[in-house]
Each structure stands twice: as structure tokens, then as C-alpha cells.
Design a protein that fits this description.
This protein is mainly α. The chain is about 80% helix and about 5% strand. It has two domains: about 1-30; about 50-179, Four Helix Bundle (Hemerythrin (Met), subunit A), CATH 1.20.120.10. The protein has helices at about 1-45, 55-80, 85-95, 95-105, 110-135, 140-160, 170-179, and strands at about 50, 160. It binds heme C (HEC).
């Protein structure tokens, strides 16, 4: 009787354990599936306004973007060292001189709103440079940088670039048309 009870208990315990393990595996599987499904859905529901650019135009914009990121990193590095001359120098590289270089190549390819927002970012960096030289106040520069970077965030939330080649809507449309 006692032996029976003892052997029954662990058995029950074992089945319970396996049951839980199966449930856990199921849960894990669903979770992984969910993550993948989410990634696919996220890609398909990118509702940001599409900028249709040629391949070289896209490369040009992205190159400027990478320069902006690397420039802001250099500004932060100089600010951390309280080197206000370097802050001014780095900020000036992202100012209106940088904007003029890009202008011709992209003329007409980008919407007015996009260009305007981009220009104000370049103006911000010229202002940051001027203030870094005259005020030498790293806290002030930091808040200017933060305000300017809010524009990076706003623009990225609004636009995406698509070339004809990578535009899924375009290729779907074409497949249907050639059927
Ligand atoms: C006027 C709009 C606009 C502003 C302002 C802007 N960006 Fe962008 N940026 C874009 C767009 C559009 C893309 C491409 C996004 C996409 O296609 O998903 C992009 C892409 C990028 C990329 C990716 C580059 C690559 O090689 O893929 C980086 C990095 C970046 N931006 C940094 C910045 C930083 C830093 C700032 C601010 C200092 C900034 N951007 C301001 C529009 C903007």
C-alpha cells in the first residue's frame, strides 16, 4: 500500500513535469513564430511616405545620412572632452556647406517638405557651431544637439526611400499587369 503510494506519486509528478515541458515548448514555439510573423507584418505595414529615388540618388542621401550620424558622434565626443573648438569644427562640417554639396544631384527628386526639414537641420548645426565658439557652454550645445536630433527622429518617422527595384508595391503591380 505504502509502496504503491510512493511509486504512484513520483509517476504523477513525472507526467506533470512532462506535461509542463510540452506546454512550455509549445509556448516557446508560438513565441518564436510570433516574433517572425511580427517582423513580416512590420515590413508590410511600413506606412511611411515613400520617396521614389534612383539607385544613385538613394546612395547619395544615405551617404549624407551616415555623415550626419558620424558627425553627431564626433560632436558628442568633443562635448564629453569639453573641447568646444572641436565641437564648433565638427558642427560646421554638418552645416549649410554640406547641404549645398547635395543640392544639385537631388534637385526635384525630393518633396519640398523634406528639403525644408533637412535645411533646418543644417542651419541648426551652423548655429551650434557659432554658439559653441561664442558661449563655450557644453550644456547649451547639448540641448541644441538634442533639439536638432528630434528632427532626425521626426523625418525618419515620416519617410522611407524606395528605388523602383526594391518597391514591393511596384513589383506586385507589374506582375499583375503582365499576367
Ligand atoms: C529630412 C529628412 C531627414 C532628416 C532631417 C534626417 N534624415 Fe536620416 N534618413 C532619412 C531617410 C528618408 C532615410 C532612409 C530611411 C528608409 O528608407 O528607411 C534616412 C536614413 C538614415 C540613416 C541610415 C543610413 C544607411 O546607410 O542606411 C542614418 C544613419 C540617418 N538617416 C541618420 C540621420 C541623422 C543622425 C540625422 C540628424 C542629424 C538624420 N538622419 C536626419 C531622412 C532624414
Amino acid at each position: 500500500m505504502l509502496i504503491c503510494a510512493i511509486s504512484a506519486k513520483p509517476k504523477q509528478g513525472v507526467t506533470l513535469y512532462f506535461d509542463q515541458e510540452i506546454k512550455l515548448n509549445k509556448l516557446l514555439f508560438m513565441l518564436i513564430l510570433g516574433v517572425f510573423a511580427n517582423a513580416v507584418v512590420a515590413e508590410e505595414t511600413d506606412k511611411r511616405q515613400i520617396l521614389k529615388l534612383s539607385e544613385p540618388q538613394r546612395e547619395h542621401v544615405l551617404q549624407e545620412m551616415r555623415a550626419l550620424l558620424s558627425g553627431t558622434q564626433s560632436i558628442l565626443d568633443a562635448l564629453a572632452k569639453d573641447d568646444m573648438a572641436a565641437v564648433a569644427q565638427q558642427a560646421r562640417l554638418l552645416g549649410m556647406t554640406m547641404a549645398h554639396k547635395a543640392e544639385d544631384h537631388l534637385k526635384g527628386a525630393l518633396p519640398q517638405e523634406f528639403m525644408k526639414l533637412g535645411m533646418t537641420v543644417h542651419q541648426d548645426f551652423d548655429q551650434l557651431a557659432a554658439d559653441a565658439e561664442s558661449m563655450k557652454d557644453s550644456k547649451h550645445s547639448l540641448s541644441q544637439l538634442s533639439a536638432s536630433m528630434a528632427k532626425c527622429v521626426a523625418c525618419h518617422a515620416t519617410y522611407q526611400i524606395r528605388t523602383q527595384h526594391q518597391n514591393p508595391a511596384y513589383s506586385r503591380h507589374r506582375t499583375r499587369a503582365t499576367r
